[in-house]
Amino acid sequence: MERRKFIQKTAKGAMALGAAPLIFSNSNWKGANDRVNVAVIGIRGMGQSHIREYQNLKNVEVAALCDVDENLFAGRVKEYYTDKGLRKPTLYNDMRRLFEDKSIDAVSVVTPNHWHALAGIWALQAGKHASIEKPSCHTIEEGQKLVEAAKRYNLVVQDGAEQRSNPGAQSAVQFMRDGKLGEVYLAKGVCYKWRDSIGRYPDGYMAEGEKYASTVNSTSWIEPFTKEYMEKVNYDMWLGPAPKRPFNRNRFHYNWHWNWDYGNGDLGNQGVHEMDIARWGLGVKIPTRVSAMGGHLLFDDAQETPNVLMAVFEFPNPEGGGDKKKVMQFEVRHWMTNPEGNNLGSGESLKNTYMTSSSNVIGNIFYGSEGYMLKDVSGWQTFMGKEREPGASGAGEGNHYQNFVDAIRADDPGLLTAPIEEGFYSCALIHLANISHRLGRTLNIDPVTFSVINDEEANRMFSKEYRKPYML
């Protein structure tokens, strides 16, 4: 049989089995010896940023795309490949088939949160390097398993804490490590994002001609989720390890963030970036006490996670004064609010950076015995002494994707600015805060065993049940 027709027939037959790639490419082709072939898993939201950023790197090819929603493929291939004169990628609707592709060197996992660690572990077992979007784990236990796998297979595993690749963040932390802010005793992370109500919708597909939501949390639903649309979605694969539930538009694209089965609320969405910076700046890992309170306020809708949350963490500080501890605060707000510090990120003290606007304020404040520091995504400014005089400052953005590729080429995970173990410790704080909130009580932590003291109910929430065959 003529080769092209054979491939077409093979592809159709494989698709009937629901497993094989949709488009085949010549996997024997290779460019220069140091070319890195990357695949992006999840191409709807942030996945598009991953495609663009890798395509901007020298001698890197985004050779494959994977998504459970086949409706997305034609548009992505046109925008990022054929319109640019680039060779079409191999397309997969099942990541397991992608992991069998020996031409792929590395993957970016840009799925919903409940898939992050499992997809990362599967990639490592298949010999692929992995960059895993934040938060790198949906529970504490699977984060520990992901770190274990990274060490076992000795591959490059990058956490999505991209600010760690920014010279601005690196110089801010170094300033504090050098003692120039004095004893840094308190860090505060803020995540104030304007989030509208998601409403309530019945389970099931949308009717033909039904109007769909024009705006949800500043993200438009551009797809009418009709039966015809969903026929091209591998919904069982989308659920993956999560419990079997019928389709609901409020548990699908983007709004999965606000459901415990798939997301971790805004604390694990945008907040994880600032949580990581706060922990890094303080120089701490596992807390000894965690207390969080808040709730889902104002709106009577389908959201399960809190949209207002205040969490406090205590860490040991043997070298400090007084009670020998460090404290971290974190606040999530979703509606009317005010800036922090000297109008953090408003443009008065720091440059107006991404994720900062009239309705969003994102960043960190560090308090030391000699002054305090405001930090946004790319810059920082200190205010020193009792009079809070402007002091040292810094800025600069790096390239997290380049750092990942450089570590792959050197075959050296030690080159990573955001190794997966550091990402895990920051994710653990998110999970501990959510557990404290959901149980309505303070958690006392044994940092040696990393368990909650005399609280088996809390310890059970370190893990979750997995739906077969998507087992951890």
TrEMBL record:
Superkingdom: Bacteria
Gfo/Idh/MocA-like oxidoreductase N-terminal domain ranges (all copies): 36-158
Residues forming coiled coils: none
Listed InterPro entries: Gfo/Idh/MocA-like_OxRdtase_N, Gfo/Idh/MocA_oxidrdct_glycsds, Gfo/Idh/MocA_OxRdtase_bact_C, NAD(P)-bd_dom_sf
Domain Gfo/Idh/MocA-like oxidoreductase bacterial type C-terminal stretches: 230-283, 401-471
One Gene Ontology molecular-function label: nucleotide binding
Name under which the protein is recorded: Gfo/Idh/MocA family oxidoreductase
